[in-house]
Design brief:
This protein is of the alpha+beta class. The chain is about 15% helix and about 30% strand. Strand 10 and strand 11 form a beta hairpin.
Length: about 325
């Protein structure tokens, strides 16, 4: 049975046009396909971010999404019944002049999310809102996302280690560190133990990591914990100073955080370097900043007035990993 019509034949010119059109379509589609996972990752984190900022125990939350300027807003909402709490009281200020870290608009952990780059020499961020010695914290969590290739010790965020707490990116043998001081003025330092898996001990690999330290004086089991990339890691006690008499799992004998008898009643925190600041300061006075300086990228910093459970830390990492 013969066909009722002749088969359509394309000329060479028509075939070349069709091939060119197909090439344009592919060229337009591939970037969209390649960026889809990054866009999905950012969407996942934004959903988590909008939820976590309403946690009543979240005290400070810096996302560094401004991308420009000298201020970074504290996005924590605070407790609805705490009429004295004002989020903007705890906003952060990028340091003055040459001490100011750089805004990186498209080099962040997630698609087109801004972040801050610290040069490892004198860059830092000053956190507004001091911590008075009468304000004892029964529990706390400090978390930070970062990326570095520097293998020597570095400080992520510090509210004066000898008065309150400090979180380090690289400490001791290369792993993270979590340092706290209680109302008995005893300072206790933890670091990732040598028995931990290699991926938790070597964080200067140029990849994004999440480090979280928690403390809960009423907690069961280990009252002080350290997490890397969502997992609780085995820890080693590096030093114990002052009058610490607690056990390894309960280093402060169930006391709240914050030294009782400092020379000056206030302490203020820095991001990117250690703090010895008795007042808010962003000028880089050497008497207030305590090296070592951080070199690399810091994306977000969160401070809670409660200890996150291991499952909550895992959720934070799952929601924010690149």
């Amino acid at each position: 049975m013969e066909s009722s019509g002749d088969a359509r034949c394309f000329t060479l010119t028509e075939l070349l046009v069709i091939i060119a059109v197909i090439g344009v379509i592919i060229a337009m589609t591939i970037p969209a396909v390649m960026s889809a996972p990054r866009m999905a990752a950012k969407s996942r984190w934004l959903s988590y971010s909008r939820t976590i900022r309403n946690d009543p125990a979240l005290h400070r939350y810096y996302t560094f999404e401004e991308g420009e300027g000298v201020d970074s807003a504290n996005l924590a909402v605070g407790r609805s019944d705490d009429v004295a709490y004002r989020a903007d009281t705890y906003d952060a200020l990028l340091a003055d002049g040459s001490h100011r870290p750089l805004w990186i608009g498209k080099g962040g952990r997630l698609n087109k999310k801004s972040t801050l780059y610290f040069d490892g020499q004198d860059d830092f961020v000053a956190m507004r809102g001091g911590w008075h010695t009468r304000d004892k914290w029964p529990a706390a969590t400090v978390a930070a996302w970062f990326k570095t290739s520097k293998a020597t010790p570095q400080i992520l965020v510090d509210n004066d280690r000898s008065e309150a707490w400090r979180l380090t990116a690289v400490y001791g043998s290369g792993g993270a560190g979590w340092h706290t001081t209680s109302s008995n003025s005893d300072t206790h330092d933890l670091m990732v133990a040598s028995s931990a898996e290699a991926r938790y001990k070597s964080l200067s690999d140029g990849k994004w990591h999440l480090v979280v330290g928690t403390y809960d004086k009423e907690g069961s089991g280990n009252r002080k914990r350290l997490f890397v990339d969502g997992f609780e890691v085995p820890v080693a006690q590096l030093t114990t100073a002052g009058t610490a008499t607690g056990s390894f799992s309960d280093p402060h004998d169930g006391r709240p955080l914050r030294s009782t008898a400092p020379m000056i009643p206030w302490c203020f925190g820095y991001i990117g370097v250690g703090s010895n600041a008795p007042m808010f300061n962003s000028s880089g006075l050497s008497s207030f900043t305590m090296p070592p300086w951080f070199e690399g990228f810091i994306d977000e910093v969160l401070v809670f007035k409660r200890a996150l459970a291991p499952g909550e830390v895992a959720e934070m990492y799952a929601a924010g990993k690149p």
